[in-house]
Design brief:
Number of strands: 0
Mean pLDDT: 85
Distance between the termini: 29 Å
Shape: elongated
Order of helices and strands: HHHHHH
CATH class: Mainly Alpha
Helix content: over 70%
Radius of gyration: 15 Å
CATH topology: Ferritin
Strand content: under 5%
Structural class: mainly alpha
Length: 176
């Protein structure tokens, strides 16, 4: 499925909305690479927590998809930066993402059962919407390297699919 592509995108994308802490400056390719990798790591951490805590089969299946897809994307992103001889560069956006991811995991640790499932999925909806916004408004327009830009364009549909899946789960959990 398009899940394999989403891993590459997740690594590059999660700087949307408030997470883009660099003001109006466009991120450089090395910064985009770091943002992408950080974003993937964050979503994997939340998904692994869901796998450890949730008993809901649909939430667990979604979390398994997130681990598989985002780890695969991170591998693709790392392979691309190695090929391009680019060193990912830490930046305020990736730092903000890391802090937000740590706060999310800490908040989720306090929850159990249906309350955990709802909080996890609600966060995934918001997170994937941020990713799409960042990809469309900042990352693709800012990417200077043609291969990096092509990768972002290629994996975008996977983020759309992740968002749709998360929204579907969110609606189902809301009915419970």
């Amino acid at each position: 499925m398009f899940v394999r592509l989403s891993a590459a995108m997740a690594a590059v994308c999660l700087l949307g909305g408030g997470a883009f802490a660099q003001g109006s400056a466009k991120p450089t390719d090395p910064q985009i690479a770091h943002i992408a990798y950080t974003a993937g790591v964050i979503d994997v951490a939340a998904a692994k927590q869901a796998l450890a805590r949730s008993k809901n089969k649909d939430v667990r299946a979604f979390a398994e998809d997130m681990v598989r897809d985002h780890e695969a994307v991170n591998k693709q992103a790392l392979a691309l930066v190695k090929k391009l001889n680019v060193t990912p560069e830490d930046n305020p956006t990736s730092q903000s993402l890391k802090k937000g991811g740590e706060e999310n995991v800490a908040n989720l640790k306090k929850l159990k059962g249906a309350e955990f499932d709802k909080a996890y999925i609600d966060h995934e909806v918001a997170y994937h919407q941020q990713v799409l916004d960042a990809v469309d408004k900042t990352l693709i327009p800012s990417a200077q390297n043609a291969e990096l830009k092509a990768l972002l364009v290629k994996v975008r549909p996977a983020f759309v699919a992740h968002l749709a899946h998360a929204k579907k789960l969110q609606a189902e959990l809301g009915k419970s």
